[in-house]
TrEMBL record:
Family membership noted in the UniProt record: Belongs to the short-chain dehydrogenases/reductases (SDR) family.
GO cellular component terms attached to this protein's record: membrane
SUPFAM superfamilies recorded: NAD(P)-binding Rossmann-fold domains
Pfam families given in the database record: adh_short
Protein name: Short-chain dehydrogenase
PANTHER family tied to this protein: DEHYDROGENASE/REDUCTASE SDR FAMILY MEMBER 7B, SHORT CHAIN DEHYDROGENASE
Record's keyword annotation contains Signal: no
Recorded GO MF terms: oxidoreductase activity
């Protein structure tokens, strides 16, 4: 690891939504390396299986949830299973995102707008509703949303508007939970060499971007 992580996550239940690649996968691997039981949700089955192969070599454990995050009934089944098995969630890192193609604000395709809202805002809100009781049931319940400074940038209207709505949801939840829990945080990672970044910045020199593992370690360090 490139950075020492001080906390021990042995015995903790950490849910990572969007765990099959990019920052989500990095978070899942780092959390498992610290002994957590990672509940890894993603739509990409192959990516989840690759993640499981890595976690098998680490101190922690993993439960795979191959699921479209926009599937309300599937999310309900997952949360019920978590409740029945552990009764709580100690940490939730939400990295699942839909990156709509770059487009002028006046030309965002309706299907891209609808999918951006469904994945980036509606699914996040549904998860907040379902996971809040599980997080409150933990002495260390903590939800973290990676923030994105590209909100409001040119040609990011479809993605940025839905991401801004997600941020507003998280900030409201953060304010509402400040005194009663769970702990809710926003965290802004440095720009990383992810597939989403490549889609928005084709041809960019990726050597100048932050290492995904390093940023994942910083994020996992927030879990308490």
């Amino acid at each position: 690891m490139t950075q020492e992580i001080t906390q021990n996550l042995a015995g903790r239940i950490v849910l990572v939504t969007g765990a099959s690649r990019g920052l989500g996968r990095g978070v899942a691997e780092v959390a498992a390396a610290r002994g957590a039981h990672v509940v890894a949700l993603a739509r990409t089955v192959g990516g989840l299986e690759d993640l499981a192969d890595v976690v098998d070599t680490l101190p922690g454990e993993i439960t795979l949830v191959p699921l479209d995050i926009a599937d309300d009934a599937g999310l309900q089944r997952m949360c019920l299973s978590i409740h029945e098995r552990w009764g709580r969630v100690d940490g939730w890192v939400h990295t699942a995102i839909y990156a709509a193609p770059l487009s002028p604000a006046a030309h965002v395709a309706v299907k891209e707008l609808d999918k951006s809202i469904a994945v980036n805002w509606r699914a996040a809100q549904r998860l907040v509703t379902m996971l809040e009781p599980l997080l409150k049931a933990s002495d260390t319940g903590h939800a973290i949303l990676p923030d994105d400074p590209m909100v409001g940038a040119a040609y990011h209207g479809g993605y940025g508007a839905s991401k801004a709505a997600q941020r507003a949801l998280w900030q409201s939840w953060q304010a509402e939970s400040a005194q009663i829990g769970p702990k809710v945080s926003l965290h802004a990672p440095a720009p990383m060499a992810t597939a989403v970044r490549a889609r928005f910045h084709p041809g960019e020199n990726r050597d100048t971007l932050a290492d995904i593992r390093t940023e994942a370690e910083k994020l996992v360090a927030l879990l308490q």
